[in-house]
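User: Could you write out the 3D structure of this protein bound to glutathione? I've included everything you need below.
Assistant: Certainly. Input first, then the structure.
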Amino acid sequence: MSDLKLVIGNKNYSSWSLRPWFFLKNLGIDFEEELVWLFEEKKESHLSSYFSNEKVPVLVDSTFALQDGSSLQVWDTLAIIEHIATRFKKGWPEDMANKAIARAVSAEMHSGFTGIRNALPMNCKKHFPNYPIEAEVQQDIDRIVAVWDYCRGTLNEKDSFSSKGSWLFGEFSGADAMFAPVVMRMIGYDVQLSGFASDYAQMVLENTAMQEWVSAGKLETHVIEEDEV
Ligand SMILES: N[C@@H](CCC(=O)N[C@@H](CS)C(=O)NCC(=O)O)C(=O)O
């Protein structure tokens, strides 16, 4: 039994849940998962047993007991990633400057890109060939591609990231976890990519953890109407 439990939503739809799940899996950290079917009758009562804002993901870390005897709960994706990285001393680039940039691009993902997030909801089951991409969404896509190129290209020369791996900062980091659902959106809605962005998206899609998540998502039968386009 693991001392970590990650409470997540439907794998087909829950992009926020995918991020810490993908992070833990790619760091090889053992955890249990509890799946809550989002927007269904029992969801509220179920999630109210956690001190979250009734949203997923929530991480329960039973190595830390609070004053009332309950286990530490961490809600909100970025806070979960930070907690895991702090506790296990891995998950961000080692170099301080690279770590700062990895955090900056992760924070930008966390607080922005509403165009792509609203218009192209993650749906692991679906593929939409030639899906029409609106200008506002294209702006987000262009910025995301620029961010990826910046992480890989600009910094790459300085640190030879390519010798460390194919992730945004060479080795896998929280930045890759934060962008993982974006890759699923780009692939699902047939966004045309080239250069590093195209190779990166393919690598994320083929990642063992991503394949495990997508396979489970495809088996789900629950439908969230508002996430269907
Ligand atoms: N900023 C939060 C967002 C969490 C979030 O919006 N989660 C969605 C699922 S992807 C959710 O729980 N939705 C259910 C609801 O809003 O009732 C985070 O980073 O964790």
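The domain at 96-214 is CATH 1.20.1050.10 (Glutathione S-transferase Yfyf (Class Pi); Chain A, domain 2).
User: Perfect, thank you.
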